[in-house]
Amino acid sequence: MDFELTQEQKDIQKTVREFVQEEFDKEKILEWDQTHAFPKDLWKKACKLGLIGIHFPQEYGGRGTGIFENILIVEEFCRGDSGVGVALSLVDFSSEVILRFGTTEQMKKYLIPICSGESISAGAYTEPDHGSDITLMFTTASRQGDSFVINGGKIFTTNGTIADFFIVLCQTDPSAKPSYRGQSTFIVQREAEGLTITELGGKMGIRMTSTTQLSFNSVKVSLFHLLGQEGKGFYQVLEFFDESRVEIAAQALGIAQGAFDRALDYAKQREQFGKKLVDFQITQHKLADMATKIETARLLTYKAAWNFDKKRIDPKLTSMAKMFAGKTAVEVTDEAVQILGGYGYLSDYEVERFYRDAKITEIYEGTKEIQKNTIASALINKLK
Ligand SMILES: Cc1cc2nc3c(=O)[nH]c(=O)nc-3n(C[C@H](O)[C@H](O)[C@H](O)COP(=O)(O)OP(=O)(O)OC[C@H]3O[C@@H](n4cnc5c(N)ncnc54)[C@H](O)[C@@H]3O)c2cc1C
């Protein structure tokens, strides 16, 4: 067992930390959060530094690392700022479905522009009536000659207003039993005729990402846009979650660490009753609890990523990492706001944003309850 990062991993971390220090401007971040703007310039710069899609093979624009290196980047982005961090970490959302199941031609066409900063991806799985349970999709794709025609609707699709293409889970065989054996994934270009994208707006947090509703009205896609085998979509998405949930755990970890850093700095400076806050034992104990939770979340997240890279896919561990890191982000950001007192409630003091942004990590990519179900079912099956 070796807990030391390699020199390459340390160098990647250093590059992201310098990027955050040089480019994350507090005033601009506040404005982007308030105006719900995507940090486009930062995205382009992050791509130039090779920080987007680092885990893609070199021939498709990446550096051919494992997902471990990617989650180190996501953690540092979110530590730098929760809003910018989440937005940057999601610009390639779902493109891994192409990476894992696509053809060489699909990978060339869609992955290279993701790494070079010319394209943004999105994944559309959730439907108004199918959130946690995606075993049946109302969005259908029916074969017509050399094409499929998609009808239906998706909700909560991140990046909808800025994505160039969408990975869409559809029911290709509505009569399949069980229903999930009749699902397939497709790549749908944003300019496809019959696709309407509507911003949902009014979000609690992660305001630098767009959250949208997609409506498919006889959207025609050629066979080229089918990902992998027809009927395997559900399994592809589940496999993708084994990867993407580790990334969400890394978002949560970074958000928690970022809030902790700010609370510690503040506690060292702020004086009440003639003492620094950090000199009150209650503050010290809060900091100790926060740091212990963060370290535990980090160990779980890193182990889940390391396992994935070793091809020891373990959905139980992935769910443990996501569930625990999400809970840590929510609890640590709450305590950070508390340590800053009234100032913690103001948007100028960044922990207010971290607090709002943390909550999503317990909801998307499977809620904390769904993670608990996954963990429990793995444990129970093992006991049999
Ligand atoms: C900002 C944002 C961005 C998102 N981005 C995307 C995206 O890019 N792509 C995408 O496809 N989706 C996205 N989602 C959707 C997200 O993944 C779903 O909201 C989430 O999976 C929960 O589905 P639901 O909202 O329909 O809740 P429901 O499934 O209706 O669940 C409601 C509550 O019931 C609980 N529950 C449900 N079933 C069970 C069960 N079996 N046991 C115990 N408790 C249960 C849930 O845990 C939850 O607390 C996003 C959501 C948000 C808010």
Q: Name the helicity range.
A: 40-55%
What's the story with the biggest beta sheet? 4 strands, mixed
What small-molecule ligands were found?
flavin-adenine dinucleotide
End-to-end distance, in Å? 30 Å
N-to-C SSE series?
HHHHHHHEEEEEEEEHEEHHHH
Give unreliable regions as ranges.
none
Mass-distribution shape: globular
Number of helices: 12
Strand order of the largest sheet: 1-4-5-8
Class from secondary-structure proportions = alpha+beta
- Beta content: 15-25%
Instruction: Name the average pLDDT.
Output: 97
* Cα radius of gyration in angstroms: 21 Å
User: What is the total tally of β strands?
Assistant: 10
Secondary-structure map:
Elements: H1 7-23, H2 26-35, H3 40-48, H4 67-80, H5 82-89, H6 95-101, H7 104-116, E1 121-124, E2 140-144, E3 147-158, E4 165-171, E5 183-189, E6 195-199, E7 211-222, E8 226-227, H8 233-269, E9 271-272, E10 275-276, H9 281-309, H10 315-339, H11 351-358, H12 368-383
Parallel strand pairs: 1-4
Antiparallel strand pairs: 2-3, 3-7, 4-5, 5-8, 6-7, 9-10
Helix pairs in contact: 1-4, 4-5, 4-8, 5-8, 6-8, 8-9, 8-10, 8-11, 9-10, 10-11, 10-12
The chain binds flavin-adenine dinucleotide (FAD).
Residues 93, 123-126, 131-132, 156-158, 203, 206, 211, 360, 363-367, 369-370, 373 line the site of flavin-adenine dinucleotide.
